[in-house]
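Much of what follows relies on a compact textual record of a protein's fold. An example makes this concrete, so a full record is given next.
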Amino acid sequence: MARSRNRRRVEQGPKAPPGALRHGLTLAVLWGLGTVALGAGGVAAWRYVTKGESIRIGAVRVVGATRASEAEIRAMSPVKAGDDLLSADVDAVERAVARHPWVARAEARRSLPPAIEITVTEREPRALVDLGGTYLVDRNAQVFKRAGAGDGLDLPLVTGFGRDDFAQRRTAVEAGLRGALALADEYAREGLVPLASIQEIHLDADWGVTLYVGDEGTQVRLGQGDLPQKLGRLHRVLEALRAEGRKAEVIHLDDRTHPDRVGVRLSGSAVGGVQDGAGGTPAPARAAGAREGPGRRRGRDAPLARR
């Protein structure tokens, strides 16, 4: 009798219910249609956001402008109200607005409700400089604007340069301006402003520094070097003159042989008379167009005399 062959019995899983395949296909189709619908809706929404009226710039706002008017800033901006907010070039706005003479720095940003906000940092004027015309100088010794009658500034005038100097030796002129600003700061720290404010700072390669101070325009010859020590001596001299009720025409602090020596020529003294034994070298003449009396230098445009 033949032996039967061993066979492994494979059990079959449960059969799918009728219609399951059709149901799965239906779900897949519906999923695909939903994805397409969402995509189409997203495209439509994007078109609405980028092209619709709701994203148009409603206003260009300016923050921080006092000397520069808001109207001037808006006029300089290449982005205007009604432009598309998302495509607005804020970098171009910053570059354009920074060309305004009073603007040291500008920042532009998008904001909601749809608008462009421009924040400006204005220059701080620290002095005037005579360059064949009177110009404003900021705290970084940058000449940034011709002074106008409406600027209303009462600042020391720096002289000793000409228009050609600024055109041909701008770096040297700016270095001189930085020195003049530093001197004005040291003058204030010494407490000299209440005694006699600076009207003019004259810089000369040979004479050094000469100040014109106070309402009378007293000439203070500082010369070169040791300026902090000289300002301390000047403080003592001005206080002594005030206590005695006297006024000086010229104060000499530039004696190179005896640097601690101070000479004073009082108002009304004979021409060339110098008290206290200071050197008798005549003081340098003032520049043409420079201040001859208190308040008379504002708006003067006469060319500077060359030394």
Summary: The two ends are 140 Å apart (CA to CA). The domain at 54-122 is CATH 3.10.20.310 (Ubiquitin-like (UB roll)).
